[in-house]
Amino acid sequence: MRKLHQQAFGEHGEVVSDLVDGLRALVGAGHGVSLVVEEAGDIVGHVMLIDALLDAPRRLVTVRVLSPLAVLPSRQGQGIGRALVTAGLQHESTRGVPVVFLEGDPGYYSRLGFEPGASHSFCKPSLRIPDAAFQAVLLPSYQPWMTSTLVYPDVFWRHDAVGLRDPGT
């Protein structure tokens, strides 16, 4: 799994691989899900959806963060990432999760139903996250009062994996 993330994320591969190692504990405790695509015994794609909190005016709301999504570079552009995201969103919808957030390329994720988080009055958890990268998809159990700031689980902060830093600076 580390090799997949290192290849898929290039210069950020080590940070993302370490994050995945940390996220596994949350998945194991029932606070997330990990989905893979395997071919001939090799993992060619992987996505995780992890519990986070939305600090809404009425109460804290458990939501999910889609992070990371990785596909082997040699297999990108073949629908593997789309299949993983679609399966993940379907899974979360059946569980009653109201919103799934992510940090990512709006050109890619907008094709999968994600919209800028700010367009629904969501606030990003860090100023390091570019506005366009902070995205959300509303699922059927979403209610309009569910707004405000997304709070990432501690593991994202411990691995410095929020708004990935530019290694060139």
From TrEMBL:
Keyword Transferase assigned: yes
Enzyme superclass (EC): transferase
Organism: Kineococcus radiotolerans
SUPFAM superfamilies: Acyl-CoA N-acyltransferases (Nat)
Keywords: Acyltransferase, Transferase
EC id: 2.3.1.-
Protein's UniProt name: Putative acetyltransferase
InterPro entries linked: Acyl_CoA_acyltransferase, GNAT_dom
GO molecular function, a single term: acyltransferase activity, transferring groups other than amino-acyl groups
Residue span(s) of domain N-acetyltransferase: 1-132
